[in-house]
Structures are given as structure tokens and as C-alpha cells.
Amino acid sequence: MSETEPLASVEPAADPSRRRLLLATTGVVGAIGVGAAAWPFLASLRPSQRARVIGAPVEVYIGNLEPGQLARVQWRGATIGIMRRTEQMLEDLDGLAGRLRDPESNNRDQQPEYARNLHRSIRPEILVLNVHCTHLGCVPQVVPEVGAQPFDANWRGGFFCPCHRSTFDLAGRVFSGVPASSNLLVPPHTFVDDDHVIIGVDPEGAA
pTM (2 decimals)? Predict the structure, then answer.
């Protein structure tokens, strides 16, 4: 791993019984804790370090990311999720259009043009998202399992925000009838090779 690659927390597919027990508390506590801790951490850094944390591109090693896993890294003070989606996850994205607020990603401010597609990514299997809810900024839980959930009887896998119960599919597209009004944001990103992605840089030649 190069010196520019941050340590990423990797989140495996959640155990259903454990997730239901923790779902109501972890999202709210995490959202409050991140906000409270961010400023003193940044203030303690030297100028060059502070600039790197706030705005510099971040290179992430994804070679050990298993199918269905989500890694979380920090870029510009935001939590970025990187998920290696399975073939089934990609197939499940199709057929959800009638339940989504913006299934075609028509709001061009939500993603670069190169990610304006069904899977909202450059490589279909690799999802890169700013995972802050577009309602009030909480960090949703990833709930990859397909099946009835307390918040959705016809769940096909995606993200659930415990703060105000907004839901997004596994491309970050927002469902209709929830507080969030727009899809999760796709940050600029590009791939160095099969095992490294840079957050904060567009692919060469991208408009």
C-alpha cells in the first residue's frame, strides 16, 4: 500500500438479528459523534496536514474488498462508501424505477456524467458514494439483504437512514415518500488499476 492510501474501515454484510438490535442507536450516535469530533481533530493538524484531510484526493486500496462489503473512508470531511457489489445486487437495481424519486439520475448535480447510468458508477461492480443522507446528513446503515424489513416490506437491499427513515437502493437512488429528496452523491473518482481508486479526481478526458 502506498503512503497516500488511507486505512479504510470495511463493513461486511450485517447479521440480521444483530443489525435490528443496533439499528436504532448507532446511526444517531455516530452522526453526533462525527460532528463533535471533526473540528478539534482538524484544528490540531499542521496546515499541510489539514489541507490534505480537507481537500486532497485520497487513494484507496480495494483489492481485498469482498463481494457485498462496504469500506468507509474520509474525503473532504465526508464519509465515502466504496462497495463491491455482487452480480445479484446489480441485477436487483433493475425493476425499481417505479419506486424511486429519480431513477434516471436526472439531477446532474448528484453525480458526474460518467456515473449517470443504472449502476451510478464507472465499473458496475464498484460503487463509490458520499454516504451522508441528503435529508440532514446522517450516515445511513447499509442493509444489503433482500427481504422484508421493518422499514420496507419489499426491500431489495440498499441504505437505510435511522435518523428519519430515508431509504436508498444499492446505487444510492432515493426511494419515493421518504424525507430525503435526492439521490446520494457520487463523488469524483477514477481507477488507477483494478485494485486502487482515487477519490476526488475525475477520469482523464472526463467532461
Answer: 0.75
